[in-house]
């Protein structure tokens, strides 16, 4: 994870434009290069390697997915959304650069993600155009009405209202899990995976993406802002539906164990245990992380 995360960080540093006005470039770089766990890029690379290709083939996917994710974080922190002032241990983008710059840098990152994915696959000359186009479509669906945007709207609309467990799962499957799934699936696609392999990767990533959010919900009520690097207790303050709120902390933790087992089970169908090991360890890292 550390090595792949570092490689993606360096690739994104090269990919981010230096443009006028400089403030836009600074805002984009401020959030993209702020660090983080790089879970989605690592998912893309590990899935690509799982089906037999090198990490290099998935680097454009890894960078593009992280750009989309960063866009969602910038927009998520804004006053019209979650109104958070802290992200990854420092000021949120809109606090550091102002609201309109933050909004537009998020928009620019979303556009850059697809440009970088298309150009990157073409420049590598090892990813067939049909597979590159398929990856673009998957990522677009995950970023828009089929994923992050739909989940965010449902999340905001549910604040302060009774929310069923089914609706909560809809929110998290779209807001968080869909982008994780897209990262892994796109990695398997550009890696030349078969339809069966891609379906297994999808089911694995769906469980891991939901697991990530359940863990997030639990940490929000069991850790401090200093431990998390972001504002703790904000979901409760906003009267949002969460797994601990609906199930209690202990049952939410039991669900985490169930999701981890489901993710690991999907890897059993792959013959090469060594190639599957990074995804297995990644699932466990997500399950047992402390921030």
TrEMBL record:
Superkingdom is Eukaryota
Recorded GO MF terms: metal ion binding; prenyltransferase activity
Keywords assigned? Isoprene biosynthesis, Magnesium, Metal-binding, Transferase
Q: Which Pfam families match?
A: polyprenyl_synt
| Any one annotated GO CC term | cytoplasm
Cofactor(s) the protein needs = Mg(2+)
One GO BP = isoprenoid biosynthetic process
What pathway does this protein act in? Isoprenoid biosynthesis
Key word Magnesium present: yes
| Coiled coil region boundaries | none
Instruction: Give the matching NCBIfam families.
Output: FPPsyn (NF045485)
Name the protein family: Belongs to the FPP/GGPP synthase family.
Q: What is this protein called?
A: Uncharacterized protein
């Amino acid at each position: 994870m550390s090595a792949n995360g570092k490689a993606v960080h360096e690739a994104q540093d090269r990919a981010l434009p230096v443009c006028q006005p400089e403030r836009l470039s600074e805002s984009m770089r401020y959030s993209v290069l702020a660090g983080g766990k790089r879970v989605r890029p690592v998912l893309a690379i590990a899935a690509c390697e799982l089906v037999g290709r090198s990490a290099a083939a998935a680097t454009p996917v890894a960078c593009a997915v992280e750009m989309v994710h960063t866009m969602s974080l910038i927009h998520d922190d804004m006053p019209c959304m979650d109104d958070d002032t802290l992200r990854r241990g420092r000021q949120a983008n809109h606090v550091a650069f102002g609201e309109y710059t933050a909004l537009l840098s998020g928009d620019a990152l979303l556009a850059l993600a697809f440009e970088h994915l298309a150009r990157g696959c073409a420049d590598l000359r090892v990813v067939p155009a049909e597979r590159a186009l398929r990856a673009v479509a998957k990522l677009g669906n995950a970023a828009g009405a089929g994923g992050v945007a739909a989940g965010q709207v449902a999340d905001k609309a549910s604040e302060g209202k009774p929310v069923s467990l089914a609706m909560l799962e809809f929110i998290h499957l779209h807001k968080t899990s869909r982008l994780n799934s897209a990262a892994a699936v796109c990695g398997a696609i550009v890696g030349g995976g078969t339809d069966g392999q891609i379906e297994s990767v999808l089911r694995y990533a769906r469980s891991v993406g939901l697991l990530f959010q359940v863990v997030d919900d639990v940490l929000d009520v069991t850790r401090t802002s200093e431990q998390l690097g972001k504002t703790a207790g904000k979901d409760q303050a906003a009267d949002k539906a969460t797994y601990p709120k609906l199930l209690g902390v202990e049952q939410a933790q039991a669900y985490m164990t169930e999701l981890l087992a489901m993710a690991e089970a999907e890897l059993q169908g792959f013959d090469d245990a060594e190639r599957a090991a990074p995804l297995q360890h990644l699932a466990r890292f997500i399950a047992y992380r402390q921030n």
